[in-house]
Each structure stands twice: as C-alpha cells, then as structure tokens.
Design goal:
This protein has 15 helices and 13 strands. By secondary structure, it is of the alpha/beta class. Helix 5 links the parallel strand 3 and strand 4. Helix 3 packs across helix 11 and helix 12 crosses helix 15.
C-alpha cells in the first residue's frame, strides 16, 4: 500500500522556517511564520490565559467529554463576541473545532454535503490552506480579483465584476478582517455592496475571521461579519481563537451556521455535530474552556481586552514606523499602504526574485508572494528591513 504514495508539494512556510533556523547570520529577520511575536521575539501567554489556567487547575474535577458540539457555554461566549446579538441566538447552530483550520475544514465539508455542485469563490490571493483543503475535497474553486498590486489596496471593482459571474448556490469566501495575506480590507460601504450582490444572486457567504481585535479593535473588526450575518439569509462563519487569545497550540475554533429564522437551526445543529463525529468526534476543550472563563468573567475579560489592545497598537506603531522609514529613504509615499493595512500581514506586492534577493543579501525571510508578518518586527529591526527593501529595488 505505502508504495503507492507520491511526493506531495512541500509547505512553503514550513520550508522557510527551516531555512531561517539554519541561517547562521545573527542579523536575520523572520517575517514568514504567521504567529504573533512581541518585541523580544516571543509569542507570550496572555495574562488572562495564565489566570484562567490557574483557576481551572484549582477547580476542574474531570476531563470527561463535553459533547460532540463542545461546551454550549463556549459557543454562547464566542457567538456573543463575534456577533453581539445582531442575529437571534436561536437561529445559530455551532460546534467547537480544532482551531480555525478545523472550522474552515468543517465548513467546506458542510458545503459539499449540502450542495455537491456548489463552487467556492476565493480571493486572489487568499490564505493558501483555503485552496489546499478545497482541492483535497474536490470542490471546484473560482478565484476573484481582490488585491491591486499597483495600489496595494482592494481592487473592489474587479472583485464585484468577478462575483457577478457566480451562480445561485455558489459560496463566496470572505475574510472578516485583517485579510491574510494582504492586510487590505473592505470598508463599510463596500461590505454593504457585497451583501447586496450576495442577496441579488442567491449566493452563500462564508466568513473566515481569525484576527478579531488585531486590526481596528474588537468591535470594529467584527463589523463586516455582523453586517453579513444580519443581512443575508444563510451564512457560515469560521472563527479562530489562536491569535487574539494567543492559544495557538490549544487548537480552539468555532464554526457557526447562521439562518434568518429558527426553523432550520435544529437540523443545522444535528448536521454540524454529525460532521464533528465523522472527523474527530469530540473537539478539544482546554482552550475553549479558558476562552469561556475569560469572556464570562468581568475582570479577566477586561485584562484580556487591554492586553489585546496593547498588541494591536504595537503592530500599528510598527506599521507606521516602517512606512515613515521607507518614505525617508525613498522620498516617496508609495509605501504608505503599509500604515493603512491592518492585522499581522502586509503584501509588499513585489516579485519572488526580489523576495529571494532580500533573503540572500540581508537575511530577510518572507513568503515568496511578498507577504510579511509585521509582528515579526521590532523598533530596531524596522530600519534594517526598510533599507533591505530599498536596496532590493522593491
């Protein structure tokens, strides 16, 4: 049997991480891996998470299963965080998942189960794992224009033109905030135009929201998702707690199926639980329980929100510093988009050859499509990166 295996394409980001580790240069900068790091290069355990874990250690009396859908209190807390009551709770089916990736995978499984002929429209570019999972599941994928490589902003006219080719029942995959890998987001007016098109053509929106709180704040970052959830009859939402709670290794996510009334909620819930059973039975609980404790405790929630805000503002400051430094070096404001982008990532919009040149000449490690993780910088490395960008002729 094993002799039938064929070599699979290497994961580019994992390969980049290995190259970075093997690079002997002291002055090297890792902007490739999609993990938040503080100024010391550490992905910290948040204060509220530590406090919740200590409390859990003292109080928890069992590690028994909590159910196929996970703890209902976790679903309630996350739904409130993301949707804040814009949709009746009784209209929402939900399941805990192993991370945001698990939520995305279950959503794609649900789409294939509900409508095998549905196509999924994805932005150009998008998170590579979106396309990888869709291809693995043999779901037809259609790319829509999203990022303008000249302006480094959203190509909204191109996006809308491409979405008009979608047929009733097709699924449109949207990033809730902090678009990965570009950092370029829709504004409120554009979100409304997308919603109007979705409803006119009978399209199903699926939102992947993995960075709530990393862009413009917890409430602002959820605005687009809330508009879609309240404005469309059916919505899938895949959410991750990895970034905003800093619990990457705990694999904590949630999938929601939102309807405009409660009539189908029971069947949706049954279907989501069935899919959990087929893929991994009971979802992990440790991270979900910590999130639930934090969101339901006034003091813990306030401390978590404060630390998250510190993280967000720190990334914005690095963006502004890099943009300012590039303007100083070039005498041009053509890199102003870096300060306008939001979240962990920005897409420089340059070629793989120039990305490779920066790696060879300056030890700057970023993904070949020129996605850079702003959180991989600190105030001392920003000038180094800026000079490398200029020297490479980006």
């Amino acid at each position: 049997m094993f002799e039938n295996f064929k070599p699979l394409p290497a994961d580019k980001i994992l390969g980049l991480m290995q190259m970075f580790r093997e690079d002997p240069r002291e002055q090297k900068i890792d902007l490739g891996v999609g993990v938040y790091k503080n100024a010391q290069g550490v992905t910290p355990v948040m204060r509220a998470i530590k406090a919740a874990e200590h409390k859990l250690w003292e109080e928890q009396e069992t590690k028994a299963y909590v159910g196929l859908a996970g703890d209902p209190a976790y679903s309630d807390a996350m739904i409130n965080l993301i949707l804040a009551g814009v949709v009746e709770r009784g209209n929402i089916a939900s399941v805990a998942t192993p991370g945001g990736t698990g939520a995305v995978r279950q959503a794609f499984e649900l789409i294939k189960m509900a409508n095998p002929s549905a196509r999924v429209f994805v932005s150009d570019p998008t998170w590579p794992n979106h396309v990888s999972i869709l291809n693995y599941l043999n779901i037809e994928t259609v790319v829509y224009r999203y990022f303008d490589r000249e302006t480094r902003a959203v190509n909204f006219d191109g996006m809308m033109e491409d979405l008009k080719t979608a047929q009733k029942g097709d699924v449109i995959l949207l990033h809730g905030c902090c678009h990965n890998p570009t950092g370029a987001n829709l504004n409120e007016v554009q979100w409304q135009e997308v919603i109007n098109l979705l409803n006119e053509r009978g399209l199903i929106p699926m939102i992947d929201i993995a960075y709530q709180g990393f862009g413009d704040g917890l409430e602002e970052d959820a605005k687009g998702t809330r508009m879609v959830a309240s404005g469309c009859p059916e919505v899938l939402i895949a959410a991750s707690c990895s970034k905003n709670f800093g619990i990457y290794r705990e694999r904590t996510g949630l999938l929601m199926a939102v309807s405009n009334d409660a009539s189908g909620q029971a069947l949706n819930q049954q279907t989501l639980s069935f899919l959990n059973r087929q893929n991994y039975s009971f979802p992990p609980d440790h991270g979900a329980r910590l999130v639930t404790m934090i969101l339901n405790d006034e003091a813990l929630r306030a401390d978590w929100a404060a630390e998250l805000e510190e993280t967000r503002l720190g990334m914005l400051a690095l963006r502004q510093q890099l943009s300012d430094e590039l303007q100083r070096l070039t005498g041009s404001d053509r890199f102003g988009f870096i300060a306008q982008h939001r979240g962990m990532f920005s897409l420089l919009g340059t070629t793989p050859d120039l990305v490779e040149k920066m790696r060879l000449d300056n030890g700057i490690y970023m993904v070949g499509d020129s996605r850079m993780n702003i959180a991989g910088l600190n105030t001392e490395t920003v000038p180094i990166l800026a000079q490398a960008i200029v020297n490479a002729g980006v």
